[in-house]
Amino acid sequence: MKSTACFNSWNTNSGLKPDTRFYNVSLNALVEGNKLKLVETLHSKMVGAGVPPDVSTFNVLIKALCKAHQLRPAILMLEDMANYGLKPDEKTFTTLMQGFIEEGELNGALRIKEQMVESGCVLTHVSVNVLVNGFCKEGRIEDALSFIQEVSEEGFHPDQVTFNALVNGLCRTGYIKQALEMMDLMLEKGFDPDVYTYNSLISGLCKLGEIDEAVEIFQQMISRNCSPNTVTYNTLISTLCKENQVEAATELAHVLTSKGIMPDVCTFNTLIQGLCLTKNREIAMELFEEMKKKGCQPDEFTYSILIDSLCSERRLKEALLLLKEMELSGCARNAVVYNTLIAGLCKNKRIEEAEEIFDQMELLGVSRSSITYNTLIDGLCKSKRVEEAAELMDQMIMEGLKPDKFTYNSLLTYYCQGGDIEKAADIVQTMTSDGCEPDIVTYGTLIGGLCKAGRVEVASRLLRSIQMKGMVLTPHAYNPVLQALFRRKRTKEAMRLFREMMEKSDPPDAVSYKIVFRGLCNGGGPIQEAVDFTFEMLEKGILPDFPSFGFLAEGLCSLSMEDTLVELVNMVMEKAKISQNETSVIRGFLKIHKIKDALANLSVILDRQKSRRF
Fold first, then answer.
1. How far apart are CA 56 and CA 39, in angstroms?
2. Other residues' Cβ atoms within 10 Å of the Cβ of residue 251
3. 608 has pLDDT over 50
4. Least confident of 27-41, 294-308, 406-420, 563-577
5. First-to-last CA distance in the chain?
6. Handedness of CA 454, 460, 463, 468 (dihedral sign)
7. Contact 43, 56 (CB under 8 A)
8. Which of 135, 329, 418, 450 could form an SS bridge with 144, CB 3.0 to 4.6 Å?
9. Alpha-carbon distance 494 to 463, whole Å?
10. What pLDDT shows up at residue 91?
11. Long-range contacts of residues 7-12, Cβ cutoff 8 Å, at least 24 apart
12. Which of 371-380, 489-498, 604-613 has the lowest mean pLDDT?
């Protein structure tokens, strides 16, 4: 803004007409300041004033277009130079090559390099290093080395920038040993590793989870009088947080401050996220307040992390207040934040407030994605407002968004839970005709609905037809059929299906085992089968449901199989990691044949453990 104000003031007060050089300086200042829209305005003024452009003008404009990710217009600008009798120079071509590389289009950069050579323009150290960096960014280290060899024959000598690009490329592709060897070669050639070299090595080691080795490089960096920067600290802090070493990460942040380096928004975000993930949200909020006091403006990710944490703790009032603060701060509005809040409100059955946030997104110009729509559709279905959910799906289509399996599965779940199989089948039909292939969740939900409606044979046939399609069945598909068979005392069929599940599909889950355990204990079948299955279940680390275990215990006692019961109780206590004192009490009751007291105590302890987990 300063450059345009300065330009207008000079133009008005001096009475002198700005020349090409003046425009070039002003345009460059705007590009460097990332004021790309103003570049267009000022260039229009230049054209309107009849001031002729030179090569530098074109170079600045091409740089602006590359920064704005507009490569095609940048190429057209290059071609337009000939119309003004101008020839592109090394800077023109290098700027375009850099633009292509930033967009991940190395082949485009190589085409520009060929054009550069054909035009008689000589490759300089800058242009060679740009291309070396391009090869390394794509992990094409061998191509980078071949290219260096090729240009070395024409007088090119690798410099610090070249070595740094190679070290970075090797680190990005996980070749840390080779990167360290490259750093040794760099030293041999008389180039001291700088902060960029060390940051590449630290980042590479952190990506491999080698945090101790990364800290060693960090210490080596300091011992060689190379000052770490914010990027160095942020990389280490981020990795320590991911490794659940939040305390160590916080200490490192204090070191950063003591060195006179101001933590940036990335540092704060990393620490806040680490604290939230380790259930230290109160400390995270304190850090958030400290961040603002130190003049570091929170961004949309800061608010997103905290709002997500508050929603997961069902502290929705605070989450909504934080959203208001975010909106008033002028922070960029991020759809993720709004989606998180809508999900939190839906989970807590506060659908009207979720709808308000949904409407607010449109008013504020925040794009509503499929995730936004799917979250609210699911919330409406769970609140039994399926007509409104269907209307919202129609609105979703009108906004150009295609319903996906999550959209259809929400509506399907509603109809299946209500036992409306006809409407559920219509949903699957619509889904297929719209080109959305039903997944195992779709089929599992439909199977559950059929079983709930008493149509077990149809559910079994559907299960078989899914297998014929080559889909790997999950417990979500099997469990409803298992439960329905046991309820109908069709124990042998249910056990055959369970064993088939173990052989042919995803392994049974805890729910599968509990369904079978309950079925065997309550189904009046052979008690030994129930006993054997209980041992099998406990071996998998799955604890039995206690009411059903009580039925089994009664059966064992009536058949004078107390020794088997004692063995099962001991195994339950071992798997549940019950304390020594509590174990002694239960064993005491068993020794004096007070079975009911032993089981009552065990039930209380297991219930207490369960409530602690949730």
1. 14
2. 13
3. yes
4. 27-41
5. 55
6. negative
7. no
8. 135
9. 14
10. 92
11. 7/42
12. 604-613
Helix pair 36-48, 20-32: axis angle to 10 deg: 170
Computed from CA positions of residues 392, 394, 400, 401, in that sequence, does the dihedral angle turn out positive or negative? positive
The pLDDT value given to residue 611: 61
On the question of pLDDT at 17 being above 80, the answer is no
| Mean pLDDT of all residues in 72-86 | 90
CB-CB contact of 221 with 232 (8 Å): yes
Structure token digits, residue 381: 């279905």
**Exposed, middle or buried: residue 504 (CB in 10 Å: 0-12, 13-18, 19+)?**
exposed
Query: What are the CA-CA distances from residue 366 to residues 72, 357, 360 (Å)?
Result: 28, 11, 8
SS3 605: helix
Alpha carbons 410 and 394: distance in angstroms, whole number: 14
The answer to whether the CB of 67 falls within 8 A of the CB of 31 is yes
Q: Is 212 helix (H, G, I), strand (E, B) or coil?
A: helix
Distance (Å, whole) CA 210 – CA 224: 21
What was the pLDDT predicted at 614?
Answer: 44
C-alpha distance from residue 40 to each of 26, 35, 247, 365 (Å): 12, 9, 49, 25
Taking the C-alpha atoms of residue 575 and residue 541, their distance in angstroms, rounded to an integer, is 6
DSSP assignment letter at 34: T
- pLDDT reading at 1 higher than 70: no
This prediction's pTM? 0.63
Question: How far are the Cα atoms of 256, 347, 543 from residue 500, in angstroms, in the given order?
Answer: 59, 36, 22
Residues contacting 29, CB < 8 A, separation 6+: 2, 3
Nearest to residue 389, comparing CAs of 406, 436, 450, 400?
406
pLDDT (tens digit, 9 = 90+) per residue, 360-415? 888 888 888 899 999 999 999 999 999 999 999 999 999 889 999 999 999 999 99
Q: What share of the chain is helix, strand, coil (3-state, %, to 5)?
A: 75, 0, 25
Q: At what angle do helices 176-188 and 195-207 cross, to 10 degrees?
A: 170
Structure tokens at 91: 């800077």
User: What local confidence, expressed as pLDDT, does residue 11 receive?
Assistant: 54
What is each CA distance from 314 to 342, 379, 410, in whole angstroms? 12, 16, 22
* Cα R_g (the chain), whole angstroms: 34
Query: Residue 333 in contact with residue 300, Cβ under 8 Å?
Result: yes
Would you give the DSSP letter of residue 413? Answer: H
Going by C-beta distance under 8 Å and a sequence separation of 6 or more, which residues neighbour residue 10? 16, 18, 22
pLDDT at position 90: 92
Strand ranges (E), 75-190? none
Compute CA distances 319 → 342, 393, 432, whole Å: 11, 27, 39
Contact 206, 235 (CB under 8 A): yes
* 411's tokens: 């509506």
- Give the burial string for 100-113 (b: 16+ CB within 10 Å, else e): bbeeeebebbbebb
- The closest of 140, 138, 139, 158 to 148, measured between CA atoms, is 158
